[in-house]
Design brief:
Length: 584
Amino acid sequence: MRKLFVALLIGAAAPALAAPADEFKAITDDYWAFVMRENPTFASTLGIRDHDDELGDISLAAEDRRAAQAQAYLKRLDAIPDASLSPADRTNKLILRRSLGDFVTANGFGQRMMLFTNREGWHQSIAGLADNLTFRNRTDYENYLKRLARYPAYNDEAIRISSRAVAEGYTLPCAAMTGFEGSISGVIGDDPAKSRLYGPFAASKPADISASDWASLQQRARALISGPLRGAYKKHFDWYGASYAPKCNKAISVSAQPGGDKYYEYRVRQMTTTDKSADEIHKIGLSEVARIRAEMETVAKKAGFASREAFIADLRTNPKYYATTPEELMQAVARETKKIDGKMPTLFTLLPRLPYTIREIPAETAEGTTTAYYNSGSPETGIAGTYYVNTSKLDQRPLWEIPALTVHEAVPGHHHQIALQQELPMPDWRRHGTFFTAFVEGWGLYSERLGIEMGLYDTPAKDMGRLSYEMWRATRLVVDTGMHSKGWPKDRAVKYMTDNTALSGANIEAEVNRYISWPGQALAYKIGELKIRELRARSETTLGAKFDLRRFHDAVLGQGAVPLDVLETQIDGWIAAERTRKTS
Protein backbone atom coordinates (compact mmCIF):
# COMPACT_ATOMS: atom_id res chain seq x y z
CA MET A 1 0.00 0.00 0.00
CA ARG A 2 1.27 3.40 -0.97
CA LYS A 3 2.04 6.35 1.31
CA LEU A 4 0.79 9.41 -0.50
CA PHE A 5 2.93 12.32 0.59
CA VAL A 6 6.35 10.96 1.47
CA ALA A 7 6.72 8.05 -0.96
CA LEU A 8 10.18 7.08 -2.17
CA LEU A 9 10.48 8.74 -5.58
CA ILE A 10 13.22 8.58 -8.15
CA GLY A 11 15.02 11.01 -10.42
CA ALA A 12 16.13 11.19 -14.01
CA ALA A 13 19.44 9.83 -15.25
CA ALA A 14 22.52 12.04 -15.60
CA PRO A 15 25.56 11.60 -17.86
CA ALA A 16 28.21 9.28 -16.45
CA LEU A 17 31.20 10.99 -14.88
CA ALA A 18 34.79 9.84 -15.12
CA ALA A 19 35.39 9.12 -11.44
CA PRO A 20 33.12 6.50 -9.80
CA ALA A 21 32.88 8.56 -6.60
CA ASP A 22 31.78 11.59 -8.61
CA GLU A 23 29.25 9.52 -10.53
CA PHE A 24 27.82 8.16 -7.29
CA LYS A 25 27.46 11.69 -5.93
CA ALA A 26 25.79 12.77 -9.16
CA ILE A 27 23.28 9.93 -8.84
CA THR A 28 22.40 10.79 -5.26
CA ASP A 29 22.20 14.52 -5.99
CA ASP A 30 19.90 13.95 -8.94
CA TYR A 31 17.86 11.45 -6.95
CA TRP A 32 17.30 13.80 -4.03
CA ALA A 33 16.43 16.75 -6.29
CA PHE A 34 13.79 14.60 -7.95
CA VAL A 35 12.43 13.39 -4.61
CA MET A 36 11.94 17.00 -3.65
CA ARG A 37 10.16 17.84 -6.92
CA GLU A 38 7.92 14.79 -6.72
CA ASN A 39 7.08 15.27 -3.04
CA PRO A 40 6.31 18.98 -2.75
CA THR A 41 4.71 18.82 0.69
CA PHE A 42 7.66 16.81 2.05
CA ALA A 43 10.03 19.34 0.47
CA SER A 44 8.19 22.16 2.23
CA THR A 45 8.79 20.55 5.62
CA LEU A 46 12.53 20.63 4.88
CA GLY A 47 12.52 24.31 3.96
CA ILE A 48 12.70 23.72 0.18
CA ARG A 49 10.11 26.16 -1.11
CA ASP A 50 10.20 25.64 -4.90
CA HIS A 51 6.81 23.91 -5.06
CA ASP A 52 5.07 25.21 -1.94
CA ASP A 53 1.69 25.51 -3.63
CA GLU A 54 1.52 21.92 -4.95
CA LEU A 55 0.27 18.61 -3.59
CA GLY A 56 2.03 16.26 -6.00
CA ASP A 57 0.92 13.75 -8.63
CA ILE A 58 -0.50 10.48 -7.25
CA SER A 59 -1.63 9.05 -10.59
CA LEU A 60 -0.63 5.53 -11.59
CA ALA A 61 1.05 6.98 -14.67
CA ALA A 62 3.27 9.04 -12.37
CA GLU A 63 4.10 5.93 -10.34
CA ASP A 64 5.07 4.07 -13.51
CA ARG A 65 7.29 6.98 -14.55
CA ARG A 66 9.00 6.92 -11.17
CA ALA A 67 9.51 3.17 -11.33
CA ALA A 68 11.09 3.47 -14.79
CA GLN A 69 13.45 6.11 -13.45
CA ALA A 70 14.26 3.88 -10.51
CA GLN A 71 15.35 1.20 -12.96
CA ALA A 72 17.59 3.73 -14.65
CA TYR A 73 19.18 4.62 -11.34
CA LEU A 74 19.72 0.96 -10.51
CA LYS A 75 21.50 0.48 -13.82
CA ARG A 76 23.79 3.43 -13.08
CA LEU A 77 24.46 2.21 -9.55
CA ASP A 78 25.35 -1.28 -10.76
CA ALA A 79 27.93 0.20 -13.12
CA ILE A 80 29.91 1.60 -10.17
CA PRO A 81 32.37 -0.93 -8.64
CA ASP A 82 32.05 -1.09 -4.87
CA ALA A 83 35.83 -1.14 -4.52
CA SER A 84 36.06 2.32 -6.06
CA LEU A 85 33.94 3.89 -3.29
CA SER A 86 34.75 4.88 0.26
CA PRO A 87 33.36 2.66 3.03
CA ALA A 88 30.67 5.28 3.76
CA ASP A 89 29.59 5.44 0.12
CA ARG A 90 29.58 1.66 -0.19
CA THR A 91 27.05 1.67 2.63
CA ASN A 92 25.13 4.51 0.99
CA LYS A 93 25.07 2.64 -2.31
CA LEU A 94 23.74 -0.49 -0.64
CA ILE A 95 20.99 1.50 1.11
CA LEU A 96 19.97 3.38 -2.04
CA ARG A 97 19.96 0.21 -4.09
CA ARG A 98 17.72 -1.57 -1.60
CA SER A 99 15.31 1.38 -1.47
CA LEU A 100 15.10 1.70 -5.25
CA GLY A 101 14.64 -2.03 -5.66
CA ASP A 102 11.82 -2.09 -3.11
CA PHE A 103 10.09 0.76 -4.94
CA VAL A 104 10.28 -1.03 -8.29
CA THR A 105 9.04 -4.28 -6.78
CA ALA A 106 6.13 -2.62 -4.97
CA ASN A 107 5.00 -0.90 -8.16
CA GLY A 108 4.53 -4.30 -9.79
CA PHE A 109 1.76 -5.31 -7.39
CA GLY A 110 -1.89 -4.37 -7.77
CA GLN A 111 -1.86 -3.40 -4.10
CA ARG A 112 -0.21 -0.14 -5.19
CA MET A 113 -3.77 1.03 -5.90
CA MET A 114 -4.75 0.63 -2.25
CA LEU A 115 -4.26 4.22 -1.14
CA PHE A 116 -5.56 3.94 2.43
CA THR A 117 -5.69 1.70 5.46
CA ASN A 118 -8.31 1.53 8.19
CA ARG A 119 -6.50 4.35 10.01
CA GLU A 120 -5.12 6.73 7.37
CA GLY A 121 -5.61 7.96 3.82
CA TRP A 122 -5.43 10.97 1.55
CA HIS A 123 -8.31 12.68 3.40
CA GLN A 124 -6.39 12.57 6.68
CA SER A 125 -3.10 13.57 5.06
CA ILE A 126 -4.55 16.87 3.82
CA ALA A 127 -6.38 17.41 7.14
CA GLY A 128 -3.08 17.25 9.00
CA LEU A 129 -0.96 18.97 6.36
CA ALA A 130 -0.68 22.27 8.23
CA ASP A 131 0.89 20.52 11.24
CA ASN A 132 4.10 20.07 9.25
CA LEU A 133 4.25 23.49 7.59
CA THR A 134 5.43 26.90 8.74
CA PHE A 135 3.24 30.01 8.56
CA ARG A 136 5.42 33.08 8.93
CA ASN A 137 4.32 35.44 6.15
CA ARG A 138 1.53 36.08 3.69
CA THR A 139 3.14 33.87 1.04
CA ASP A 140 2.95 30.86 3.36
CA TYR A 141 -0.78 31.36 3.84
CA GLU A 142 -1.38 31.97 0.13
CA ASN A 143 0.46 28.78 -0.77
CA TYR A 144 -1.54 26.81 1.77
CA LEU A 145 -4.78 28.15 0.28
CA LYS A 146 -3.57 27.13 -3.18
CA ARG A 147 -2.89 23.64 -1.88
CA LEU A 148 -6.37 23.44 -0.37
CA ALA A 149 -7.82 24.60 -3.69
CA ARG A 150 -6.01 21.72 -5.44
CA TYR A 151 -7.49 19.13 -3.12
CA PRO A 152 -10.77 18.43 -4.97
CA ALA A 153 -8.84 17.38 -8.09
CA TYR A 154 -6.43 15.36 -5.93
CA ASN A 155 -9.41 13.69 -4.27
CA ASP A 156 -10.94 12.89 -7.66
CA GLU A 157 -7.72 11.17 -8.79
CA ALA A 158 -7.49 9.18 -5.57
CA ILE A 159 -11.09 8.02 -5.99
CA ARG A 160 -10.41 7.04 -9.61
CA ILE A 161 -7.48 4.89 -8.57
CA SER A 162 -9.40 3.38 -5.67
CA SER A 163 -12.38 2.62 -7.91
CA ARG A 164 -10.08 0.70 -10.23
CA ALA A 165 -8.75 -1.15 -7.18
CA VAL A 166 -12.31 -2.15 -6.29
CA ALA A 167 -12.98 -3.37 -9.84
CA GLU A 168 -9.83 -5.51 -9.80
CA GLY A 169 -10.39 -7.03 -6.36
CA TYR A 170 -7.99 -4.96 -4.25
CA THR A 171 -10.17 -3.93 -1.32
CA LEU A 172 -9.58 -3.82 2.40
CA PRO A 173 -11.27 -6.45 4.57
CA CYS A 174 -14.69 -5.53 5.94
CA ALA A 175 -13.67 -6.74 9.39
CA ALA A 176 -11.15 -3.91 9.78
CA MET A 177 -13.20 -1.00 8.47
CA THR A 178 -15.87 -0.37 11.10
CA GLY A 179 -16.22 3.36 11.64
CA PHE A 180 -13.84 4.35 8.84
CA GLU A 181 -16.43 6.67 7.29
CA GLY A 182 -16.23 8.81 10.43
CA SER A 183 -12.62 9.66 9.63
CA ILE A 184 -13.96 11.28 6.43
CA SER A 185 -17.09 12.98 7.72
CA GLY A 186 -15.39 14.19 10.89
CA VAL A 187 -12.84 16.41 9.15
CA ILE A 188 -15.28 19.25 8.35
CA GLY A 189 -18.13 19.83 10.78
CA ASP A 190 -20.83 22.47 10.75
CA ASP A 191 -18.35 25.25 11.49
CA PRO A 192 -15.46 25.30 8.97
CA ALA A 193 -13.39 27.38 11.41
CA LYS A 194 -13.27 24.39 13.79
CA SER A 195 -11.79 22.06 11.18
CA ARG A 196 -8.10 21.15 11.37
CA LEU A 197 -7.90 22.46 7.81
CA TYR A 198 -8.51 25.94 9.21
CA GLY A 199 -5.85 25.61 11.91
CA PRO A 200 -3.32 28.12 10.51
CA PHE A 201 -6.00 30.82 10.35
CA ALA A 202 -7.17 30.21 13.92
CA ALA A 203 -3.74 31.24 15.21
CA SER A 204 -2.63 34.77 16.00
CA LYS A 205 -2.26 37.21 13.13
CA PRO A 206 1.34 37.53 11.86
CA ALA A 207 2.75 40.99 12.51
CA ASP A 208 3.50 41.74 8.85
CA ILE A 209 -0.08 41.10 7.67
CA SER A 210 -2.58 43.91 8.04
CA ALA A 211 -5.83 43.35 9.90
CA SER A 212 -7.87 43.70 6.72
CA ASP A 213 -5.64 41.31 4.77
CA TRP A 214 -5.77 38.81 7.62
CA ALA A 215 -9.55 38.96 7.68
CA SER A 216 -9.57 38.41 3.92
CA LEU A 217 -7.30 35.34 4.22
CA GLN A 218 -9.53 33.92 6.94
CA GLN A 219 -12.64 34.50 4.87
CA ARG A 220 -11.09 32.80 1.84
CA ALA A 221 -10.08 29.83 3.98
CA ARG A 222 -13.60 29.45 5.39
CA ALA A 223 -15.05 29.71 1.89
CA LEU A 224 -12.70 27.05 0.54
CA ILE A 225 -13.38 24.69 3.42
CA SER A 226 -17.14 25.16 3.48
CA GLY A 227 -17.39 25.07 -0.34
CA PRO A 228 -14.99 23.03 -2.55
CA LEU A 229 -13.41 21.04 0.27
CA ARG A 230 -16.70 20.17 1.93
CA GLY A 231 -17.88 19.06 -1.50
CA ALA A 232 -14.79 16.90 -1.98
CA TYR A 233 -15.17 15.28 1.43
CA LYS A 234 -18.85 14.62 0.77
CA LYS A 235 -17.96 13.06 -2.57
CA HIS A 236 -15.39 10.87 -0.81
CA PHE A 237 -17.88 9.93 1.92
CA ASP A 238 -20.62 9.07 -0.56
CA TRP A 239 -18.22 7.09 -2.76
CA TYR A 240 -16.97 5.11 0.22
CA GLY A 241 -20.48 4.28 1.39
CA ALA A 242 -21.96 3.45 -2.02
CA SER A 243 -19.03 2.02 -4.01
CA TYR A 244 -16.33 0.82 -1.62
CA ALA A 245 -17.88 -0.44 1.61
CA PRO A 246 -20.29 -2.84 -0.18
CA LYS A 247 -17.32 -4.34 -2.03
CA CYS A 248 -15.01 -4.68 0.99
CA ASN A 249 -13.16 -7.97 1.17
CA LYS A 250 -14.96 -10.68 3.11
CA ALA A 251 -11.63 -12.44 3.73
CA ILE A 252 -9.18 -10.85 6.18
CA SER A 253 -5.99 -12.16 4.60
CA VAL A 254 -4.09 -10.16 2.00
CA SER A 255 -3.41 -13.53 0.40
CA ALA A 256 -7.07 -13.53 -0.73
CA GLN A 257 -6.34 -10.57 -3.02
CA PRO A 258 -4.95 -11.16 -6.53
CA GLY A 259 -1.25 -11.96 -6.14
CA GLY A 260 -1.66 -11.47 -2.40
CA ASP A 261 0.55 -14.35 -1.31
CA LYS A 262 3.53 -12.99 -3.25
CA TYR A 263 2.73 -9.48 -2.03
CA TYR A 264 2.82 -10.66 1.58
CA GLU A 265 6.18 -12.33 1.02
CA TYR A 266 7.46 -9.02 -0.32
CA ARG A 267 6.03 -7.11 2.65
CA VAL A 268 7.72 -9.47 5.10
CA ARG A 269 11.09 -8.90 3.41
CA GLN A 270 10.57 -5.15 3.10
CA MET A 271 9.40 -4.56 6.65
CA THR A 272 11.97 -6.76 8.40
CA THR A 273 14.90 -6.13 5.97
CA THR A 274 15.63 -9.85 6.30
CA ASP A 275 15.08 -12.98 4.21
CA LYS A 276 13.08 -14.68 6.93
CA SER A 277 9.91 -16.45 5.83
CA ALA A 278 6.50 -15.93 7.38
CA ASP A 279 6.78 -19.37 8.97
CA GLU A 280 10.16 -18.55 10.55
CA ILE A 281 8.79 -15.32 11.97
CA HIS A 282 5.70 -17.11 13.29
CA LYS A 283 7.95 -19.51 15.22
CA ILE A 284 10.08 -16.67 16.60
CA GLY A 285 6.86 -15.10 17.84
CA LEU A 286 5.72 -18.28 19.58
CA SER A 287 9.09 -18.57 21.32
CA GLU A 288 9.05 -14.94 22.49
CA VAL A 289 5.48 -15.26 23.75
CA ALA A 290 6.46 -18.25 25.89
CA ARG A 291 9.47 -16.40 27.34
CA ILE A 292 7.53 -13.23 28.17
CA ARG A 293 4.63 -15.18 29.72
CA ALA A 294 7.07 -16.69 32.22
CA GLU A 295 8.33 -13.21 33.16
CA MET A 296 4.74 -12.01 33.56
CA GLU A 297 4.02 -14.83 35.99
CA THR A 298 6.96 -13.74 38.13
CA VAL A 299 5.77 -10.11 38.22
CA ALA A 300 2.21 -11.17 39.07
CA LYS A 301 3.42 -13.19 42.05
CA LYS A 302 5.54 -10.23 43.19
CA ALA A 303 2.35 -8.12 43.09
CA GLY A 304 0.58 -10.65 45.33
CA PHE A 305 -1.63 -12.29 42.70
CA ALA A 306 -2.03 -16.02 42.23
CA SER A 307 -1.52 -15.81 38.46
CA ARG A 308 -0.78 -13.45 35.61
CA GLU A 309 -4.42 -13.75 34.54
CA ALA A 310 -5.62 -12.51 37.92
CA PHE A 311 -3.21 -9.57 37.89
CA ILE A 312 -4.15 -8.65 34.33
CA ALA A 313 -7.85 -8.79 35.19
CA ASP A 314 -7.22 -6.29 38.00
CA LEU A 315 -5.11 -4.07 35.74
CA ARG A 316 -7.87 -3.99 33.13
CA THR A 317 -10.72 -3.19 35.51
CA ASN A 318 -9.48 -1.41 38.64
CA PRO A 319 -10.54 2.27 38.39
CA LYS A 320 -7.38 3.47 40.18
CA TYR A 321 -5.39 2.72 37.04
CA TYR A 322 -7.40 5.02 34.76
CA ALA A 323 -7.68 8.77 34.22
CA THR A 324 -11.17 10.23 34.31
CA THR A 325 -10.55 13.19 31.99
CA PRO A 326 -8.39 13.75 28.89
CA GLU A 327 -6.50 16.48 30.77
CA GLU A 328 -5.63 14.10 33.61
CA LEU A 329 -4.22 11.62 31.11
CA MET A 330 -2.22 14.30 29.28
CA GLN A 331 -0.82 15.63 32.56
CA ALA A 332 0.35 12.14 33.51
CA VAL A 333 2.02 11.78 30.12
CA ALA A 334 3.66 15.22 30.43
CA ARG A 335 5.10 14.39 33.84
CA GLU A 336 6.52 11.12 32.53
CA THR A 337 8.19 12.83 29.57
CA LYS A 338 10.08 15.22 31.84
CA LYS A 339 11.18 12.41 34.14
CA ILE A 340 12.60 10.56 31.14
CA ASP A 341 14.22 13.68 29.68
CA GLY A 342 16.32 13.98 32.82
CA LYS A 343 17.70 10.48 32.41
CA MET A 344 18.74 10.78 28.75
CA PRO A 345 22.38 11.82 29.40
CA THR A 346 22.93 8.54 31.24
CA LEU A 347 22.26 6.62 28.03
CA PHE A 348 23.79 8.78 25.26
CA THR A 349 26.71 11.13 24.74
CA LEU A 350 24.94 12.87 21.84
CA LEU A 351 21.45 14.36 22.16
CA PRO A 352 19.46 16.10 19.40
CA ARG A 353 18.70 19.81 19.59
CA LEU A 354 15.12 19.56 18.31
CA PRO A 355 12.53 19.34 21.12
CA TYR A 356 9.20 17.52 21.03
CA THR A 357 5.72 18.34 22.25
CA ILE A 358 2.62 16.30 23.15
CA ARG A 359 -0.84 16.58 21.58
CA GLU A 360 -4.10 14.69 21.60
CA ILE A 361 -4.88 12.50 18.57
CA PRO A 362 -7.55 14.23 16.40
CA ALA A 363 -11.05 13.32 17.51
CA GLU A 364 -12.25 12.04 14.11
CA THR A 365 -9.62 9.28 14.08
CA ALA A 366 -8.99 8.66 17.78
CA GLU A 367 -11.55 5.95 18.46
CA GLY A 368 -10.34 3.72 15.64
CA THR A 369 -6.61 4.21 15.92
CA THR A 370 -3.77 3.17 18.18
CA THR A 371 -2.87 4.34 21.69
CA ALA A 372 -0.24 6.84 20.54
CA TYR A 373 2.07 7.71 17.67
CA TYR A 374 4.90 10.07 16.77
CA ASN A 375 5.14 12.68 14.03
CA SER A 376 8.61 13.94 13.18
CA GLY A 377 9.49 17.62 13.26
CA SER A 378 11.93 19.64 11.16
CA PRO A 379 15.01 21.55 12.30
CA GLU A 380 15.06 23.36 8.94
CA THR A 381 11.60 24.88 9.33
CA GLY A 382 11.49 25.09 13.11
CA ILE A 383 8.76 22.49 13.78
CA ALA A 384 9.07 20.33 16.89
CA GLY A 385 8.45 16.60 16.89
CA THR A 386 5.03 15.56 18.21
CA TYR A 387 4.07 12.70 20.51
CA TYR A 388 0.33 12.14 19.88
CA VAL A 389 -1.71 10.55 22.70
CA ASN A 390 -5.13 8.95 22.37
CA THR A 391 -7.54 10.46 24.90
CA SER A 392 -10.68 8.69 23.66
CA LYS A 393 -12.12 5.70 25.57
CA LEU A 394 -10.34 6.65 28.79
CA ASP A 395 -11.36 3.41 30.47
CA GLN A 396 -9.14 1.67 27.92
CA ARG A 397 -6.02 3.87 28.41
CA PRO A 398 -4.39 2.65 31.65
CA LEU A 399 -1.88 4.86 33.42
CA TRP A 400 0.48 1.92 33.91
CA GLU A 401 1.11 1.89 30.15
CA ILE A 402 2.45 5.44 30.11
CA PRO A 403 6.16 4.74 30.89
CA ALA A 404 6.57 2.11 28.16
CA LEU A 405 4.44 4.11 25.72
CA THR A 406 6.43 7.28 26.29
CA VAL A 407 9.93 5.84 25.95
CA HIS A 408 8.82 4.28 22.66
CA GLU A 409 7.13 7.28 21.04
CA ALA A 410 9.18 10.17 22.48
CA VAL A 411 12.63 9.66 24.00
CA PRO A 412 14.79 7.66 23.84
CA GLY A 413 12.57 6.14 21.14
CA HIS A 414 11.24 7.73 17.99
CA HIS A 415 11.87 11.39 18.69
CA HIS A 416 15.45 10.87 19.84
CA GLN A 417 16.33 8.57 16.93
CA ILE A 418 14.63 10.57 14.17
CA ALA A 419 15.64 14.03 15.44
CA LEU A 420 19.22 12.84 15.83
CA GLN A 421 19.21 11.45 12.29
CA GLN A 422 18.05 14.83 11.01
CA GLU A 423 21.25 16.38 12.43
CA LEU A 424 23.81 13.73 11.42
CA PRO A 425 26.64 14.76 9.06
CA MET A 426 25.40 12.75 6.08
CA PRO A 427 23.80 13.55 2.73
CA ASP A 428 20.27 14.99 2.84
CA TRP A 429 18.80 11.95 1.11
CA ARG A 430 20.05 9.81 4.00
CA ARG A 431 19.16 12.23 6.80
CA HIS A 432 15.64 12.87 5.58
CA GLY A 433 14.83 10.24 2.98
CA THR A 434 15.65 6.82 4.45
CA PHE A 435 13.23 5.05 6.76
CA PHE A 436 13.64 1.35 7.48
CA THR A 437 10.79 0.21 9.69
CA ALA A 438 12.73 -2.67 11.26
CA PHE A 439 15.37 -0.22 12.47
CA VAL A 440 13.07 2.64 13.50
CA GLU A 441 10.45 0.52 15.24
CA GLY A 442 13.04 -1.96 16.49
CA TRP A 443 14.77 0.93 18.22
CA GLY A 444 11.44 2.10 19.64
CA LEU A 445 10.81 -1.31 21.20
CA TYR A 446 14.40 -1.57 22.43
CA SER A 447 13.88 1.82 24.07
CA GLU A 448 11.02 0.36 26.11
CA ARG A 449 13.54 -2.04 27.60
CA LEU A 450 15.83 0.88 28.43
CA GLY A 451 13.09 1.99 30.81
CA ILE A 452 14.37 -0.76 33.13
CA GLU A 453 17.77 0.92 33.32
CA MET A 454 16.10 4.30 33.81
CA GLY A 455 14.10 2.97 36.78
CA LEU A 456 10.74 3.79 35.20
CA TYR A 457 8.98 0.53 36.02
CA ASP A 458 8.99 1.09 39.77
CA THR A 459 5.71 -0.73 40.52
CA PRO A 460 4.53 -4.20 39.52
CA ALA A 461 1.76 -2.57 37.47
CA LYS A 462 4.23 -0.52 35.42
CA ASP A 463 6.51 -3.53 35.00
CA MET A 464 3.56 -5.58 33.80
CA GLY A 465 2.80 -2.70 31.45
CA ARG A 466 6.30 -3.01 29.99
CA LEU A 467 5.96 -6.77 29.63
CA SER A 468 2.49 -6.38 28.13
CA TYR A 469 3.89 -4.01 25.53
CA GLU A 470 6.72 -6.40 24.71
CA MET A 471 4.18 -9.23 24.56
CA TRP A 472 2.05 -7.05 22.27
CA ARG A 473 4.93 -6.91 19.78
CA ALA A 474 5.68 -10.63 20.16
CA THR A 475 2.06 -11.60 19.54
CA ARG A 476 2.14 -9.47 16.40
CA LEU A 477 4.63 -11.91 14.89
CA VAL A 478 2.15 -14.69 15.52
CA VAL A 479 -1.14 -13.04 14.54
CA ASP A 480 0.09 -11.07 11.50
CA THR A 481 1.63 -14.16 9.94
CA GLY A 482 -1.28 -16.22 11.26
CA MET A 483 -3.90 -14.13 9.47
CA HIS A 484 -2.01 -13.41 6.25
CA SER A 485 -0.11 -16.66 5.79
CA LYS A 486 -1.77 -19.39 7.86
CA GLY A 487 -5.49 -18.73 7.41
CA TRP A 488 -6.32 -17.51 10.92
CA PRO A 489 -9.74 -15.83 11.30
CA LYS A 490 -9.92 -12.48 13.08
CA ASP A 491 -11.48 -13.86 16.25
CA ARG A 492 -8.55 -16.24 16.71
CA ALA A 493 -6.11 -13.32 16.46
CA VAL A 494 -8.14 -11.28 18.97
CA LYS A 495 -8.32 -14.21 21.38
CA TYR A 496 -4.59 -14.87 21.10
CA MET A 497 -3.75 -11.27 21.98
CA THR A 498 -6.37 -11.19 24.74
CA ASP A 499 -4.96 -14.35 26.30
CA ASN A 500 -1.35 -13.21 26.20
CA THR A 501 -1.24 -9.41 26.66
CA ALA A 502 -2.63 -7.04 29.26
CA LEU A 503 -3.96 -4.73 26.54
CA SER A 504 -7.56 -3.57 26.80
CA GLY A 505 -10.23 -4.93 24.51
CA ALA A 506 -10.46 -1.67 22.54
CA ASN A 507 -6.72 -1.60 21.94
CA ILE A 508 -6.66 -5.22 20.83
CA GLU A 509 -9.54 -4.61 18.41
CA ALA A 510 -7.78 -1.55 16.95
CA GLU A 511 -4.48 -3.38 16.68
CA VAL A 512 -5.85 -6.49 14.97
CA ASN A 513 -7.71 -4.25 12.51
CA ARG A 514 -4.43 -2.47 11.85
CA TYR A 515 -2.62 -5.74 11.04
CA ILE A 516 -5.45 -6.79 8.76
CA SER A 517 -5.36 -3.58 6.72
CA TRP A 518 -1.58 -2.99 6.84
CA PRO A 519 -0.03 -6.44 6.33
CA GLY A 520 3.54 -7.07 7.39
CA GLN A 521 4.29 -3.69 8.99
CA ALA A 522 3.84 -4.96 12.53
CA LEU A 523 6.50 -7.64 12.05
CA ALA A 524 9.27 -5.05 12.02
CA TYR A 525 9.18 -4.11 15.70
CA LYS A 526 10.18 -7.35 17.37
CA ILE A 527 12.55 -8.46 14.61
CA GLY A 528 14.42 -5.15 14.83
CA GLU A 529 14.49 -5.14 18.64
CA LEU A 530 15.85 -8.69 18.79
CA LYS A 531 18.69 -7.73 16.44
CA ILE A 532 19.65 -4.68 18.54
CA ARG A 533 19.57 -6.76 21.72
CA GLU A 534 21.67 -9.44 20.01
CA LEU A 535 24.26 -6.83 18.98
CA ARG A 536 24.34 -5.34 22.48
CA ALA A 537 24.95 -8.76 24.02
CA ARG A 538 27.72 -9.41 21.48
CA SER A 539 29.30 -6.06 22.30
CA GLU A 540 29.12 -6.62 26.07
CA THR A 541 30.61 -10.11 25.79
CA THR A 542 33.40 -9.13 23.42
CA LEU A 543 34.40 -5.86 25.05
CA GLY A 544 33.94 -6.80 28.70
CA ALA A 545 35.10 -3.92 30.90
CA LYS A 546 35.60 -1.77 27.80
CA PHE A 547 31.90 -1.82 26.97
CA ASP A 548 30.32 1.64 27.31
CA LEU A 549 26.53 1.63 26.99
CA ARG A 550 26.36 5.28 25.97
CA ARG A 551 28.92 4.76 23.19
CA PHE A 552 27.09 1.62 22.03
CA HIS A 553 23.82 3.55 21.70
CA ASP A 554 25.60 6.34 19.84
CA ALA A 555 27.04 3.74 17.46
CA VAL A 556 23.63 2.14 16.79
CA LEU A 557 22.10 5.51 15.93
CA GLY A 558 25.17 7.12 14.43
CA GLN A 559 24.48 6.19 10.79
CA GLY A 560 20.76 6.83 10.82
CA ALA A 561 18.15 4.24 9.90
CA VAL A 562 19.70 1.29 8.08
CA PRO A 563 18.71 -2.28 7.15
CA LEU A 564 19.46 -4.79 9.90
CA ASP A 565 22.30 -6.47 8.01
CA VAL A 566 23.98 -3.08 7.54
CA LEU A 567 23.51 -2.36 11.25
CA GLU A 568 25.21 -5.63 12.14
CA THR A 569 28.21 -4.79 9.94
CA GLN A 570 28.42 -1.32 11.52
CA ILE A 571 28.38 -2.64 15.08
CA ASP A 572 30.93 -5.35 14.31
CA GLY A 573 33.20 -2.59 13.01
CA TRP A 574 32.53 -0.51 16.11
CA ILE A 575 33.39 -3.46 18.37
CA ALA A 576 36.70 -3.92 16.58
CA ALA A 577 37.51 -0.21 16.96
CA GLU A 578 36.52 -0.20 20.64
CA ARG A 579 38.84 -3.11 21.37
CA THR A 580 41.81 -1.02 20.30
CA ARG A 581 40.59 2.33 21.66
CA LYS A 582 42.67 3.72 24.48
CA THR A 583 40.70 4.80 27.52
CA SER A 584 41.80 7.29 30.14
